[in-house]
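Question (not urgent): is this output format expected?
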Amino acid sequence: MKDYFLEKYKTKSKYDLQKIIDNKDQYQPEAIIAATHLLNHWKDAPVSPDKGVILNSHKETESKTKSFSTIFDYKPFVRSLSYREFLTSITLALFCQAFIDTINYYSDEHIFEEYHNNIKFTFLILIFLANHIYYRYEHGRSNNFIGRSLNDLVLLFSIILTRTLYLYIVTGSLEIIFNANGMGAFSVILGLVILISIFELLVALLNLILKQFKCQIF
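Got this back:
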């Protein structure tokens, strides 16, 4: 795993490597080790050779004071945004459609009759969490609050798009309902954004708890 990050980070600038070390709680340990190793090749790199910690106390303090603002920094997500995020979202969306249709097919069975909606809702939450877990695995770092929210939107619209196309292929009709002045669409979008924000606040709380037990997964 360390070799993977060495290859991935070898083209990064000193500033980017230093930023990884400054935000080590957002990256996997192997990523920190690789960034420290590469940063040590800079002759003037202020890094401790044994622990990979920035020796400049001013920068360490500055990093802590900016910790709150970094959760709303969209640049890390946008900078690393590529086709992989969209392919992952589409794959998870298709998997979600398959699971939901399977549950719908067996919804009249006794075991699913009362709980099929709860099962689908729980599975939908797990899909969004799986998207965050895969992001950390793929990029070697955790996504911040705004990054996870944007990633949620990509996945959400992928689910809506795939569902719409599926129903169009099956039924042959495509109906989009708007009320006066398009306020219906605006209300739906606003409601989805609010739901995603609440969901991500709960994810952030869960992430904080997992950090305390040294088992962060996203």
